[in-house]
Each structure stands twice: as structure tokens, then as C-alpha cells.
Specification:
The structure holds 2 protein chains of 2 kinds. By secondary structure, chain A is mainly alpha-helical. Chain A has 11 helices and 2 strands. In chain A, strand 1 and strand 2 form a beta hairpin. The chains are: A mainly alpha, B alpha/beta. The interface between A and B is large, with 51 and 51 residues.
């Protein structure tokens, strides 16, 4: 095979891997985008919701075996999707009990709008969750792997009979599910009555209150949805990737980078931001050593934020 | 040194704390507890470093591990590669920290709020992976048995403890010096209202850069000592998210914006987590994290601003109740105006000349070809319906916004392209439509911030500020917190803050908004007295009636254009102006009738 052919093969493989991974990152970012981008609540525990989504998937599939009847290929995906409603309830309750005290109407007009309180409170939640998970689940890496993760589609490249690109079947299914859920959420937020209420409550809580919107309830629902969506993304990662209780830390940073890069306040932007990160991460392996994969993400993130603070896909910059 | 409290009490408190800590350390024999007692001051220094930047300016940094880690790795690599003692390594590490602060601060300070916080997070994480890639996964510090003291390696843990406490004392004294100076007050002003600080003549970027450089040096020193004490450095332990988090957790827990916050936070949290780790870590791994997390949650719910402020407020409440009645004394009427040292001119000259000034936001033309002049010693009114572009015009004049075209010449110098603080220095003051006060500062301190432009020394600044407060008749409320003032008092305070910069030109944005009739009279009297003491006034106002009695010339704006210029009579009789204010239907109706 010619050197060019070799390069084309690895390039295509990295590109496809980046796109598929990027879709799952995009879904994670959509979840955080709702909480951080739209409601402007800093949630450090978002990565730990992701982790809980992973363990939820693991336990409904192999731990308790509730979904065993679906077969080893499909069960993990169904488990991942079910993590959504389960963690929605978790997020909803967490907001009601803790987050509401340091965000939304209870702090509007205060010096920093509760920013440092949110930060430290959710940091406490994150510590409690990940160490609680360590006690409950142990530190051994586990995975809720689908049997599809062992199979790949082979796409022959026409220019050379020996060249082909392999695509993991699990990552394709995960990618499609991510796209479906992200678009469903997009329509929910932008078209439905509930979505309009949520956006109004986030955009201008005072005005929304005057219009008869129960702002606190809207915030709880939005927080719950954001939590649930990120948990689904976690479950999808779990279908082909091992994880442990501290995995959230790795992802929380990717999520924040994606949301900011995409442009705060836009659901669609958050998805593109996550996709960009997936691409940067995979394509950087072509030119950089693998250890620097994540350094490349942060370098790109910093460049984007410094050159275009409104994000790659955002419309307006923050005003003075 | 009035208004700043004595230095003796805090210095004595620092000395007592340090000596007490060392005495306690001497009493402790267990080497594990000795290590813990060494780590507390180190984390407290990191917290203080974070506090210097984020506590005082309000710009939350998620990335102080950058400086901590660079300090730790500088010491380690110099020792391993070049056999250089940490006695030199730590100061060199601080230098690296300062350089890193320059490189990081300059671009990142263009960001605000959440963007700043998250961008800061990216630096240590990028560094983490770079150091892993460079092959510094786990670097032990070599034992130097031949000259332990030269290499900062002591068999007796108390020496490390003394070093850590010494570093803490240094950090506390520096924080104290910052807190009690123009430096600290400028940072606090930035935290409470950055645009107002900039408009009051504070070079916000310069102060933020100084803060991050000092902060970087302190964090690097803490990191360097950390490496020396623990004898091993890994990228995760010094650049990791948890290290950055530690800096902010100890500070937020103890209380931000005060030098005692990080000390209190570290003294409670570090022993708590270490003890839990030691006692329960083997039995139930992770339990210490859960307890630590819950402790943090509880504190933030019970004392959201940190322990220090909660205790202080509580003490103040207990002390202040009997004296509260004194505060309710009504402010007296404005006193006789003291003349200000500004040169008077015999014949009026043009102080401000605006020509062809235009500004558009996206496709919207907010201002289009604005031109007018202001004579020295005049009061010029700018009127126009809502959305006419009045406040945008002020934002262009004082540098908050850059025009797309046109020129602004003030006393022979063009203002276009200058930053607000430069424009303020040249002699253009400003007040805001919605008062931008520094809520947590007293009236006098608020005004001092405005006086810094004209004063080199602290005492002089306080002198000028006191004079300005007296000039607007707010002297009975001099020590009250801005947050406790009435609307009229706030407006007078903002006027005093602007006057403390001794402006030749003062831009006032709706100073009468929200005032009752009697208060309007008081404000009008204060404004009317300004030209005679050397300050020319340009004033935006909505209420035509009050303006007719105040200004001798008017510029009427409508849809971003100058509709009319002239005296009160000419302007009110201009059909275009009447139409803009009352609507074309009304005009048409009356034209027919």
C-alpha cells in the first residue's frame, strides 16, 4: 500500500471514530448545556451523574439482570436509555433539596448570583457521590459491554483492495441513539410548551414569574432533564468502555469545554461543541502522541474561548 | 490612616497564631500528625494565593494548580537534573509562577464570569498531560545524606513545620498589606463593579495582572515546599483538578476576601480529611470523601459566605444593636461648596467637541453622525425619548464602547480608543443611570476609589474623598455601608465618587431617576453648584421640567440622530422635538385643530 493510502486509512478511521465518539460527547454536553449553558448553574457533579448512569446501566443489565431477556447485544443500550428517567428523578430531587438554595430565585440579585456557593456545594456533592460509589461498587474498573462492541463493520476502500476501515458496531448504535435523544431534546426545548416555559424561566426569572411560570419548578425540571440526558450518555459510553467511580472527573472537564466552545445557552451549540471535542481528540492522535490527546483538547478549547468568547456556534457575547 | 483600622491587632494575631501552631507542633510527637500540621499551612498559603486573585477581584479561578504544580516541578527538576538546592529552587519556582501568571493572565483577563473560571481550568489540565508526556509521571526527590540541611532535608519534622508556618506568615503579611492599601481597595472595587471601577479611573487590567502575578508567586512557593515535604511529585497530585479545588474549597469554606478565611478553612478541613483517611480509610475506602463532601455541603448551606463572615456578622450584630439609632440621623442639606483647584477661564472655551460620532450594534445603527460642542463651565442637557441612544452616547464618550466612526475631542485630546480609566484620568467623570455602588464598602471608601486618580498617597486620597463627601452633603453617613443607603443618598454618593476624581467634565446619566420631588430639589442644587467649582456638566434626563430649570443648552436625540440643539425655549417649540416626544398623531391632530 502506498504511504498516502496508509495515511488515508488511518485518517478515515480517526475521523469516523471522532464522529461517533463526538456524538456521545455531544449528548453529554447537551445535558450540561441545559444546566450550565441555559440556567447558568455551575454543576461540578455533572460528571458523577454520568458515572451513576454508567453504574445504573451495569446493574440493570448484569447486576440485577432485569434486562437479561433482551439478549446481550441490546440490553446495555436499553439500560443506558433507562438511566435517563432514573437519573431525572435523582437530579430533580437534588435540585429541590440542595441546588435550589444556591441558585435561581433564591439568590437573584446577590453579589455573584450564588456562583461560589454553587461551585462549592456541587463540589461537595461530587465528592460524596464518587466516594459513595467507591464504597458501594468498589474500585475495580467494570463495563456493561454489549456483544456488539466485539464486532465491527468493515468498509472496503475502493482505491486499494487491501485497505479497509473498521467501525465498531457498538459505537454506531450509541451514536445513533445519541443523535435521536439530542434531537428529541432539541424539539422539546424549542417547540413544546414545556420547553418555552423552561427557556423563559432561565432567561428572565423575574419576568417569567410575572407571566405565571412556576420558576422554581421549571428549574427543577430542567436540572432533572440535564442530569438524565448526561446519564444516558454515560450509559452509552459504558456499553463499550470500562469505568470506575472516579471516571466523572475526566468527563466533567470535557463537558464544560464542549458547552463553552459551542456557545453558552444554545442546546444545538452544546452538541456541536461536544462533537468538535470528539473530533479533536481522535484526529490529534494522527500528529500527536496519545498522552497529549487531552492536552490538545484543552489547547483547542483555550484558543476558541480566547478568540471567540461567544463560542464557535454562539450568537452573542456576554455584555458588560 | 483613618478608615483602615490599626495594623497592630492583625499583626499580633498573625504572630500569636504562628507561635501557637509551632508550640502545638512541638507538643505533638506522632510523625503523622506532624506531617498534617505541616500540610495545613501549605494549603492555607495556596488558599491565600487563590484569595489574592479570586477572593478580592471576584474572578473565580479553577486553575491555581497551574502555579502550584509549576512551583513543585521547578523545585523537583532543578534538584534531580541540576542538583540545585530547594533553597534556590523555591524562589526560582516563584519566578516561574510569576511568568506563568503573566502568560496566563494577559489573554485570560479578557474573559469574564464563567468563561474566565473555565478557561483557567484548562491550563493546569493541559500542563498535567504535558508533564506526563515529558515522562515526569512520578518523580521522587533524591535523598542527599551528605548535606541534608543544604538540600532542605531534615530528620526532624518540626523544621518543615517551621518553614511552612514561616511561608504562611509571609503570605498573611503580604495579604494584609494588599488588603489595607490602594491595591486591595482597587481589587475590591473591581469585584463589586468592574465597569464602575474602570469609569472611576482604576486601571482594572493593571491591578488584575499584579494580583495574578503575586498570586502565582505565592502558589508556586506553596507547591515548591509541598514537593520538598512529600519528597515525591506526580502530575495528578500537583496539577490535578482536586488541587485547584483544594485552593478554593479551603478559602470558600473559611471565607473569601479576608486573609483569615483560607487559614480557618485549611485548619478545619485538612485535619478532618486526613484524620478520616487515617482512621477509616482502610476499613471503608472512600468514607473520608463522603464525610468531607457532606461537611462542605452543610457549611455552604449554613454559612454560604464562609465561616469567617458568618461569625463576624454574628459578633457585629451582637455589638451593633444599641448604637443603631445614631445611623438614622437624616443627612443635612448640602453645605457651602468648597472651591476645587481647577483653573478658571475668563472667556468660555470649547471643552468637549463631538463630531460625526456613529455606533452600530450588528445591523442596528444606535447612533448616527452625532455632533455637538460643550463650553467649559456650562450645563448641557441631553434629552430624547427612550431608545434614542442617550446612554450609548455616554458609553462612547467615556470609553465603555468604541465608536464605528467620528471623533471626540476633550480639551484638545481625542478620546476615541482610550480605555475608560484613561479617559477618567484626563478629567472626564461619570455617574450611572442605575447607581453602580461598591455595596460592601462604606460611603467614604466608595469615594476613595474615585479619588485614587488624583492622589498618590493613601492619606491624600482619603482627604480628597472626605472633602467630596462633605461637598454633596453626605458627611453624616460617611461610615455607613453603601448597601444601606437610600436611593437619594446613593446618587449623592456616586456624585461624590465622580467629584473625587476632580473631573473637568462630568457625565451624569439620569441623576434624578426615582427621586421624590423634594429630593429632586436637593439634587438639582448640588448639580447647579458644579460649574462654579470648575466642573462642566453634561446631563441626561428624562423629566423635561426639571431639565428646563437646570440646563441652558440642550441636545435632543431621536433614533440615534441629533434632532435639535439650542436653548430651552427653542427646543421645546421645535415641531420635530414635539413630535418625537408626543408622537406624530398628536402633532397631526393639533396641526389640524
Amino acid at each position: 500500500m502506498s504511504p498516502f493510502g496508509m495515511f488515508a486509512e488511518t485518517f478515515l478511521e480517526a475521523l469516523l471514530a471522532g464522529l461517533f465518539l463526538g456524538c456521545i460527547y455531544g449528548l453529554m454536553c447537551v445535558g450540561l448545556g441545559l444546566i450550565f449553558g441555559v440556567m447558568r448553574v455551575i454543576n461540578f457533579a455533572q460528571g458523577d451523574f454520568l458515572m451513576l448512569g454508567m453504574y445504573f446501566t451495569l446493574y440493570v443489565v448484569s447486576g440485577w439482570g432485569l434486562l437479561a431477556f433482551l439478549g446481550p447485544a441490546a440490553a446495555p443500550f436499553v439500560g443506558a436509555v433507562l438511566a435517563g428517567p432514573a437519573l431525572f428523578v435523582g437530579g430533580y430531587l437534588l435540585h429541590r433539596l440542595l441546588i435550589a438554595r444556591v441558585s435561581g430565585t433564591s439568590v437573584s440579585g446577590s453579589e455573584d448570583e450564588g456562583r461560589s456557593a454553587q461551585l462549592i456545594l456541587t463540589l461537595g456533592v461530587a465528592l460524596a457521590l464518587e466516594n459513595g460509589a467507591l464504597i458501594l461498587f468498589g474500585s475495580t474498573p467494570q463495563s456493561a459491554r454489549t456483544t456488539l462492541a466485539l464486532r465491527a463493520w468493515e468498509i472496503p476502500l475502493l482505491y486499494d483492495p487491501t485497505a479497509a476501515v473498521f467501525i465498531n458496531k457498538a459505537s454506531i448504535v450509541a451514536c445513533v441513539l445519541s443523535l435521536v435523544i439530542a434531537s428529541a431534546l432539541y424539539f422539546l426545548i424549542n417547540r413544546s410548551r414545556l420547553g418555552k416555559t423552561l427557556r423563559a424561566a432561565a432567561d428572565n426569572p423575574a419576568a417569567a414569574t410575572y407571566m405565571g411560570v412556576d420558576v422554581d419548578r421549571a428549574h427543577r425540571i430542567a436540572f432533572g432533564i440535564g442530569t438524565g440526558v448526561t446519564a444516558v450518555a454515560g450509559g452509552l459510553v459504558a456499553t463499550y468502555h470500562p469505568f470506575q467511580p472516579y471516571v466523572g472527573l475526566d468527563y466533567v472537564i470535557i463537558m464544560y469545554a464542549g458547552v463553552v466552545m459551542g456557545g453558552m445557552g444554545s442546546i444545538l451549540g452544546a452538541f456541536w461543541g461536544g462533537l468538535t471535542i470528539g473530533l479533536v481528540q481522535q484526529l490529534s492522535t494522527l500528529v500527536l502522541p496519545t498522552q497529549l490527546q487531552n492536552a490538545a483538547i484543552f489547547a483547542v478549547f483555550l484558543l476558541v474561548v480566547l478568540m471567540r468568547p461567544q463560542g464557535l456556534f454562539g450568537r452573542a457575547a456576554e455584555r458588560i | 490612616m483613618a478608615g483602615r483600622g490599626g495594623l497592630i491587632f492583625p499583626l499580633a494575631a498573625i504572630a500569636i497564631m504562628a507561635l501557637g501552631w509551632l508550640a502545638l507542633g512541638l507538643a505533638v510527637g506522632n510523625s503523622y500528625y506532624q506531617l498534617m500540621m505541616t500540610l495545613v499551612p501549605i494549603w492555607a498559603v495556596l488558599g491565600l494565593s487563590w484569595n489574592l486573585l479570586s477572593g478580592y477581584t471576584g474572578l473565580v479561578s479553577f486553575g491555581h494548580a497551574s502555579f502550584f504544580g509549576l512551583g513543585a516541578y521547578t523545585v523537583t527538576i532543578l534538584l534531580v537534573r541540576f542538583d540545585l538546592t530547594p533553597w534556590f529552587g523555591i524562589p526560582l519556582g516563584m519566578l516561574v509562577g510569576v511568568v506563568a501568571a503573566l502568560v496566563i493572565g494577559y489573554p485570560t483577563f479578557r474573559l469574564r464570569g464563567h468563561y474566565f473560571a473555565l478557561a483557567m481550568l484548562a491550563y493546569p489540565l493541559a500542563l498535567l498531560y504535558v508533564f506526563e508526556w515529558l515522562g515526569y509521571q512520578e518523580v521522587p526527590l533524591p535523598m542527599k545524606r551528605e548535606a541534608p540541611v543544604w538540600y532542605m532535608q531534615f530528620s526532624d519534622y518540626h523544621v518543615y513545620m517551621a518553614l511552612a508556618v514561616g511561608l504562611l506568615v509571609a503570605a498573611l503579611v503580604i495579604s494584609l498589606a494588599v488588603e489595607r492599601s490602594r491595591f486591595g481597595r482597587s481589587l475590591l472595587a473591581i469585584k463589586q463593579n468592574e465597569p464602575a471601577a474602570e469609569a472611576a479611573g482604576i486601571d482594572t487590567l493593571k491591578w488584575k495582572m499584579r494580583a495574578i502575578m503575586l498570586s502565582g508567586a505565592a502558589a508556586s512557593a506553596a507547591g515548591g515546599l509541598y514537593a520538598v515535604v512529600l519528597l515525591v511529585v506526580t502530575p495528578d497530585s500537583v496539577f490535578g483538578v482536586l488541587t485547584s479545588a483544594q485552593a478554593l474549597v479551603v478559602t470558600l469554606f473559611g471565607g473569601t476576601g479576608t486573609l483569615w478565611g483560607p487559614v480557618i478553612g485549611a485548619a478545619i478541613l485538612i485535619p478532618l480529611s486526613e484524620t478520616l483517611q487515617a482512621e477509616l480509610g482502610d476499613v471503608i475506602p472512600g468514607i473520608q470523601g463522603v464525610v468531607y463532601g457532606i461537611a462542605i455541603i452543610l457549611v455552604i448551606l449554613l454559612a454560604p459566605e464562609g465561616i469567617f463572615w458568618r461569625v463576624r456578622d454574628w459578633l457585629h450584630l451582637a455589638r451593633a444593636t444599641p448604637g443603631a439609632a445614631i445611623r438614622s440621623t437624616a443627612p443635612a442639606a448640602p453645605r457651602a461648596v468648597a472651591p476645587v483647584t481647577a483653573e478658571r477661564r475668563t472667556s468660555p472655551s470649547i471643552l468637549l467637541e463631538v463630531s460625526g460620532l456613529s455606533k452600530s450594534f450588528g445591523g442596528l445603527r444606535a447612533l448616527d453622525g452625532i455632533a455637538f460642542q460643550v463650553e467649559e463651565g456650562a450645563i448641557l442637557g441631553i434629552i430624547g425619548p427612550n431608545g434614542a441612544g442617550k446612554t450609548t452616547l455616554f458609553n462612547l464618550l467615556n470609553g465603555f464602547l468604541k465608536p464605528n466612526g467620528g471623533d471626540v475631542v476633550f480639551a484638545g485630546e481625542t478620546l476615541v480608543g482610550l480605555k475608560p480609566n484613561r479617559i477618567c484620568r484626563l478629567g472626564v467623570g461619570r455617574t450611572f443611570q442605575v447607581v453602580r455602588a461598591f455595596q460592601r464598602m462604606s460611603v467614604l471608601e466608595n469615594v476613595v476609589v474615585g479619588a485614587y486618580v488624583r492622589a498618590a498617597a493613601e492619606d491624600e486620597a482619603f482627604e480628597i474623598a472626605r472633602e467630596a463627601v462633605e461637598r454633596v452633603g453626605l458627611w453624616p453617613r460617611m461610615e455607613a455601608l453603601a448597601g444601606s443607603l437610600s436611593n437619594k443618598e446613593l446618587r449623592l454618593m456616586e456624585l461624590a465618587r465622580a467629584l473625587a476624581g476632580r473631573p473637568r467634565l462630568l457625565l451624569m446619566d439620569e441623576p434624578l431617576a426615582g427621586l421624590a420631588a423634594a429630593e429632586v430639589e436637593e439634587m438639582l442644587a448640588a448639580v447647579r453648584a458644579l460649574p462654579s467649582s470648575g466642573t462642566t456638566v453634561v446631563i441626561i434626563e428624562h423629566t423635561m421640567r426639571a431639565m428646563m430649570r437646570l440646563a441652558e443648552r440642550f441636545v435632543v436625540l431621536n433614533h440615534g440622530r441629533v434632532l435639535a440643539v439650542g436653548g430651552p425655549r427653542e427646543v421645546t417649540q421645535d415641531p420635530g422635538v414635539v413630535e418625537a416626544y408626543l408622537g406624530s398623531k398628536w402633532t397631526a391632530l393639533h396641526a389640524r385643530g
